[in-house]
Design goal:
- The chain has a single domain, classed as 3-Layer(aba) Sandwich (Rossmann fold).
- The protein is about 30% helix and about 25% strand.
- The protein has 6 helices and 9 strands; from the N terminus they run ααββαβαβαββαβββ.
- The strands form 2 sheets. A 7-stranded mixed β-sheet has the order 5-4-3-6-7-8-9.
- The radius of gyration is 16 Å and the shape is globular.
- The chain binds S-adenosyl-L-homocysteine.
- S-adenosyl-L-homocysteine (SAH) binds near residues 65 and 91.
Length: about 220
């Protein structure tokens, strides 16, 4: 797959839309989304639509998130280059690529083997490899690599995973959609200490579910 002037032009238009209509103003997020070719992560039949603000099916019945969702979640991270980030739900790897492009030290986990394999290969071919990429259950997080500056969850959970809260540094933030299968609310929790968190709410979304059974697929 190539990244030609048409793709690049469409990315510029997408970034302008994110800035003007969705009030994304973190320049590092906008720069990364202008650079990373989203169409590389998608089936070639969807290539012409890759820069529309739409979610598309990927393998294993999952989806690549809307570009606006990736922009909003990443902006909420208030990421600084060099920060250590845990991502739950690698999926096709697009959100991972945006974080790596922004200079984050990324640790990412996916529970679907086909997506774990696909994203690993894809990110390697694009020279946007995260620091660590795991096949496993996001509810457990990565205790051996904790603590993290920030955690981003790209699937909708019905409860706040306590293991993840323990793996955050004090002052760290977790961005997570919480709700039922039909609809979730996007939350940001900032860890003050082991017992206290500041909670902020950012509207309704629909993510694929964060699956809690331990039988990996
Ligand atoms: N980050 C992706 C979004 C992928 S959709 C993007 O850039 O578009 C969310 C992903 O979370 C799916 O691939 C799904 O398989 C994964 N997921 C769901 N439950 C999980 C769990 N318990 N642990 C790890 N990944 C999980």
């Amino acid at each position: 797959m190539k990244d030609n002037y048409i793709h690049k032009g469409k990315r510029k238009i997408l970034v302008r839309y994110l800035r003007d209509n969705l009030l994304i103003n973190d320049e590092a997020v906008l720069d990364a989304m202008e650079i990373v070719p989203r169409h590389f992560f998608m089936e070639s039949i969807f290539e012409d639509f890759a820069y529309e603000d739409r979610a598309f099916p990927i393998a294993a019945g999952q989806t690549i998130s809307h570009p606006s969702t990736v922009a909003e979640q990443t902006q909420l991270l208030e990421l600084k280059s060099g920060e250590k980030i845990l991502e739950i739900g690698t999926g096709c790897g697009y959100q991972t690529a945006v974080l790596v492009q922004m200079g984050a030290i990324v640790y990412t986990i996916e529970r679907q083997k086909s997506l774990y394999d696909f994203s690993k290969e894809k990110l390697k071919s694009m020279d946007l490899l995260p620091f660590y990429q795991g096949f496993g259950d996001g509810f457990a997080g990565l205790p051996h690599f904790a603590p993290f500056d920030k955690i981003i969850v790209t699937c909708g959970a019905d409860t706040l995973p306590t293991a993840l809260l323990h793996q955050l540094k004090n002052g760290g933030k977790i961005i997570i959609p919480l709700g039922d299968k039909e609809e979730q609310t996007l939350f940001r929790f900032t860890k003050i200490n082991e017992k206290e968190f500041e909670k902020e709410e950012f509207g309704a979304y629909k993510f694929v579910p964060m699956l809690s059974n331990t039988n990996l697929e």
